[in-house]
Specification:
This protein is α/β, with parallel strands linked by helices. The chain has two domains: 219 residues, 3-Layer(aba) Sandwich (Rossmann fold); 58 residues, Alpha-Beta Plaits (2-Layer Sandwich). 34% of the residues lie in helices and 28% in strands. The chain has eleven helices and 14 strands. A hairpin with a 2-residue loop joins strand 4 and strand 5. The longest helix has 16 residues. It is globular and about 70 Å long. The two termini are 38 Å apart.
Length: 299
């Protein structure tokens, strides 16, 4: 795939604090790239520099092979980019239809309105005041506004935060449709399942740096070679100290890391541990995220 957007050694300082520290990556045309990381990792600042909202302290951003700070590339990028911010205030006292029309007037090229309305499932509330939208309806409108100029690259900054599981999955389906149209997506999210479902590549950021980069499957294979067995703590109570296994107590659950499930199960049976509540799961991006960034609360 051809590189659409290339980021090289991007750095951003705020009052002596290095918010982004030498970040480099490439967005391939038609792919979804995920930026993950704890609060304060530098994800949104990185996104804002790519979007042209914040000026980098140093580093380069190329769009279609040209630096975006050149006049031609800047104008082309501005018209080709769609942005869904982490937090957006909608204009009061106007309808969904009027919001789309207003944003469409800002661009020389627009998406067919009927196609956009159908793709984002806005038809049932086109004439509703934006103040009366539910959380899921609001996010679908914001996504439609990001797509109104038929963009080639779409920036989605934590688009499903605060949504219920059904609304979140509906938005996932819309992002999959965007990818199917050959558009490039850059996504930030705190939901690891979301990143695994949508992203072809992910970069995990911490303290302004990228500390892991690759496809979700490749990163999991690189860092883990075991499965996790889970048992209710009550089923293993009193036997934990005697078990020659890698155990970790998580509240009411005991987790066992195992590279050989059959051998682990035999050990549990030999120590008269009930397997009635046994669950076995593979390692996930949640495990990887915590292993790389730690479990301490970030503020």
């Amino acid at each position: 795939m051809a590189a659409l957007l290339q980021v090289t050694n991007l750095i951003k300082h705020f009052d002596g604090v290095v918010a982004v520290d030498g970040v480099s990556f490439t967005l391939q045309k038609g792919s979804c790239f995920g930026l993950l990381g704890p609060n304060g990792a530098g994800k949104t600042t990185t996104l804002e520099m790519l979007e042209g909202i914040t000026e980098p302290s140093s580093g380069e951003i190329h769009y279609r092979g040209q630096r975006v700070d050149t006049r031609f590339a800047h104008e082309a990028f501005r018209n080709d980019a769609g942005i869904m911010f982490q937090s957006t205030a909608l204009q009061d006292f106007i309808t969904v239809r009027e919001s789309l029309e207003m944003f469409g007037r800002l661009y020389p090229r627009t998406t067919d309105s009927a196609e956009l309305i159908e793709a984002c499932a806005l038809g049932e509330f086109l004439d509703r005041d934006t103040r009366k939208l539910s959380g899921g309806q609001r996010q679908r409108l914001l996504l439609a506004m990001a797509l109104v100029n038929d963009p080639q690259v779409v920036f989605l900054d934590e688009p499903t935060t605060g949504l219920d599981p059904q609304a979140r999955r509906n938005l996932w389906a819309l992002v999959q449709q965007i990818k199917a149209q050959g558009k490039t997506v850059l996504l930030t999210t705190h939901y690891m399942e979301e990143a695994y479902e949508l992203c072809d590549e992910i970069a995990i950021m911490d303290r302004g740096k990228i500390i892991a980069h690759g496809s979700p499957e490749a990163l999991l294979a690189e860092h883990f070679d075991e499965m996790i067995l889970q048992l209710p703590r009550s089923d293993i109570l009193g036997r934990v100290e005697n078990l020659p296994l890698n155990l970790k107590v998580q509240g009411d659950i005991v987790e066992i890391l195992s590279a050989d499930i059959n051998a682990t199960v035999q050990t549990l049976l030999a120590h008269d541990v009930s397997l009635a509540g046994l669950q076995i799961r593979p390692r996930t991006l949640d495990d990887l995220f915590l292993a790389l960034t730690g479990e301490a609360l970030r503020t």
